[in-house]
Amino acid sequence: MMIFALALFLLTYALLLVFPKYRAYIALGTALIFVLTRMMSVEKIFTVDWIPNWNVLMMILGTMGVVTLFIESKMPALLADMIIDKMPNVKWATVALALFAGLISAFVDNVATVLMVAPVAVTLAKKLKVSPVNIIIAIAISSNLQGAATLVGDTTSILLGAEAKMNFAQFFFFQHKFGLFWICQVAAIVSAIVLLFLFRKDKQPIHMEEKTEVTDYVPTYLLLGTILLLILASFMPFSDNFRESFPINGVICVGLFIIGLIRKIIKKMDIKPTVKELDFFTLLLLFGLFVIIGGVEEVGIIKKISEIIKDISGGNIFIMYTIFVWISVMLSAVIDNIPYVMTMLPVVTMIAHSMGIAPYVLYFGLVVGATLGGNLTPIGASANIAGIGILRKEGHEVSVGTFMHISVPFTLSAVISGYIMTWLIFKPAGIPFFG
């Protein structure tokens, strides 16, 4: 049964790579096979054990909806205009937009961030009669950088929060230490310095004559309310049993989105465009993957993978951490990091449990590597694909070489700084630096 499950899992992974347009259907089809062969119990999907998975799906759905309303309000475009208006030239405007995209993507989906900020960059480039290629690439790769900064920054962060039982506040401060948010900020600063060097010749002066007008501020309040309520929920004295049996974060995110939809209905505004923007394809993909990973874990494959990694590292935690970071970087450059992270988080849990250590440094290394690794190539992250698509519509074909001329130094500088900081902050107590 283990061999059959592994073969099916690997085949599914291959099909996900080859047929990206059909990923959700492939995952659901494999999930059905796992259920029919009893490698995964359908009853388990509707028990308390699956509440964390439903919480993840509800968080993603609700966040998608609130972000869509936020984009429709044009507030992100106004913020970008205000930033550009303060910059002296194209070089600084590019870096400022990249940093802005990174900060926004800590709370908003990466692709949505690109769709928000890129039009401003295109408009700027047209006014100055310069190519938008470098600016859009910088925005795209920066939007991936901060995915691990907060609980709602990226799907991988939501998955990490579920596996590690981390709340919103713990991404900022974890066990009285600086959390992933601050590690991402350091990586952002280091990579921004790299961008300043790469774009050092872009010194054309700029000035924004017209700023975007915002007439609806309610979506902004809904997004801020989502963040605030997630923080408050983190500090509420709920019992562990309640948190594991009730999808608190999911209810918050979906609830605020529903409030936004009801408001549009009351104001007789069309909600169809908003609903159409929801990425149900990704939600179905995630649901199928949850079933598949559950089945893979049930038959013992996760345990076997953890034993192999332990053998390769010789039980050395630093080597193990290094493996997780850099393998994650390399794999995420060519494959979707969602199924990868979903597969490897239980592996980390099992390794740490068998060694009697806290898993957090391995969790964070895995997610930092997987989140940033997608920046290496044009196909490594959805945000990159979205950015290149925008450029193609504007008549600019971006070669792999052009993209990687910017993405490789940017990504390596960000990963190396994140790699070092994560180990220094979260290295298990009593373990030598290279132990």
Helix content: over 70%
Shape, please?
A: globular
Give me the strand/helix succession.
HHHHHHHHEEHHHHHHHHHHHH
For the largest beta sheet, what order do the strands appear in spatially?
A: 1-2
**Rg, nearest Å:** 22 Å
Secondary structure tally: strands: 2
Spatial gap, N to C terminus: 37 Å
Unreliable spans:
none
Taking all residues together, what is the mean pLDDT?
A: 86
Structural class: mainly alpha
Oligomer: single chain
Strand content: under 5%
Q: Major sheet, described briefly? A: 2 strands, antiparallel
How many helices? The count is 20
Number of individual domains: 1
Structure notes:
- The structure is a single chain.
- The protein is mainly alpha-helical.
- The chain has one domain.
- The protein has 20 helices and two strands.
- It has helices at residues 2-18, 23-36, 51-72, 75-85, 90-105, 110-128, 133-145, 155-164, 180-198, 218-235, 240-245, 248-266, 272-276, 280-298, 301-313, 317-332, 337-355, 360-373, 382-393, 400-426; strands spanning 173-174, 177-178.
- A hairpin with a 2-residue loop joins strand 1 and strand 2.
- The mean pLDDT is 86.
Keywords:
single chain; about 425 residues; mainly alpha; two-stranded antiparallel ribbon; 20 helices; about 0% strand
